[in-house]
Amino acid sequence: MPITNPGRPNRFNVTAGRISMKAVVTRGNGGYDMLDYCDVPIPEPGPHEVLIQVLAAGVNNTEINTRLGWYSSSVSGGTEDLGRDSSGMAGAKNSRDGGWNEETPFPFIQGTDCCGRIAAAGREVDPGRVGQRVLVRPCIRTRGWESLDNIWMASDFDGAFAQFVVVPAAEAFGVDCDWTDAELGTIPCAYGTAENMLHRANVTAGDRVLVTGASGGVGSATVQLAKRRGARVAAVASRDKFGALGDLGADRLIARDQNAVELLGEKSVDVVVDNVAGTGFDSMTRVLDRGGRYASSGAIAGPIVAMDMRVFYLKDLMLIGCTAWDRPVFENLIGYIERSEIRPLLARTFPLHDMVSAQQAFLEKRHVGKFVLIPPPPSREQRDTFHLPEAADAKGRVPG
């Protein structure tokens, strides 16, 4: 587990002898005023950890949900309601169970997606890894692959909304490709979550797959990754997103206000990948064929659903909840990238200091794909201390 300790609030105080970095510290549950762009000490890697210079960090639903305490059992509304308050705090509650694993460790640094370059290595890490461009696997199985116990970067410990982040060396995966840093920054959370659901549901060539919320980060990744597996994909989204989803290979497009059962027919789908839930959950079970698999890792339209248990057991359905990633998932993604089997869906970039604008635009849901934050370039003191290059090009290449 990373050396950064959310239990020590004073760890963000810059003291003499410590080099500082720019970061967005989330101070607690609440609105945008909880996002504090400030100077904090650069964390130090432990023996089995690496210090990563963050080059790009994606924006996800989960960072907003965590700030607002949406994961609390006291919240019953959908995440789409959160965007209706200009203060960024609609539905926020100071709840002790509002995080992924019990209480959120405020104050801390969020940022689940990280593309970066290893700047320093702990004493038990191969020093030859310094300088390597990496993607960070944000889901850590804390008790090995035989246990589902897990912690997440940016939910349980400090993440990538900063110039530097410390992670276990085993969670930093080298990637050799010609993608830009920002393009790589779209991958970890959305694509990892999508690949995990498809892996758990055992999606194979010829499977009929229905994807809800298909224009979001996870949804659009799911469409692309399901097509890569040879599935036939029906995608649910707003009509203005149909063109982009068609470009990703969706075979059938369904508007959010249309009835999927009427359009597709009952027992017409092998797998439903649904991060929407809410009132549409019942139709998702009815559209599934006998032995169908339903996979979910979210509930943007509302976490409380109604289900006819007769549909569930008489059709021998399988309900698959997905939070802990399985071992092949991230390694699969690195391979897909390096073999050019998928492509990034970068909607827009923002400077790190403009975090509020990025989250406001994210909640408008007018984009397809991912928003990515770009930290400021390293200061002279940071460059001299960690022997960083003055600049790298957009594809992570450095002079010399």
Walk me through the topology.
Elements: E1 20-26, E2 35-41, E3 49-58, H1 61-68, E4 108-109, E5 115-121, E6 133-136, E7 139-140, E8 151-152, E9 164-168, E10 172-174, H2 181-184, H3 188-200, E11 208-211, H4 217-228, E12 232-237, H5 242-247, E13 252-255, H6 260-264, E14 269-273, H7 281-287, E15 288-296, H8 309-314, E16 318-321, H9 328-338, E17 346-351, H10 355-364, E18 370-374, H11 380-386
Parallel strand pairs: 11-12, 11-14, 12-13, 14-15, 15-16, 17-18
Antiparallel strand pairs: 1-2, 1-4, 3-5, 3-9, 3-18, 5-6, 6-10, 7-8
Helix pairs in contact: 3-4, 3-9
Features:
Rossmann fold; 23% strand; Quinone Oxidoreductase, Chain A, domain 1; six-stranded parallel β-sheet
Termini, distance in Å?
A: 34 Å
Instruction: Kindly provide the radius of gyration, computed on alpha-carbon positions and rounded to a whole number of angstroms.
Output: 21 Å
Number of helices: 11
Helix content: 10-25%
Please state the second-level CATH architecture of the largest domain.
Answer: Alpha-Beta Complex
- The assigned structural class equals alpha/beta
Reading off the top of the CATH hierarchy, the class of the largest domain is best stated as Alpha Beta
CATH superfamily of the largest domain: Medium-chain alcohol dehydrogenases, catalytic domain
Percent of sequence in beta strands? 15-25%
Q: SSE string, helix = H, strand = E?
A: EEEHEEEEEEEHHEHEHEHEHEHEHEHEH
The CATH topology annotation of the largest domain reads as Quinone Oxidoreductase, Chain A, domain 1
Count of folded domains: 2
Low-pLDDT residue spans: none
Average pLDDT rating: 92
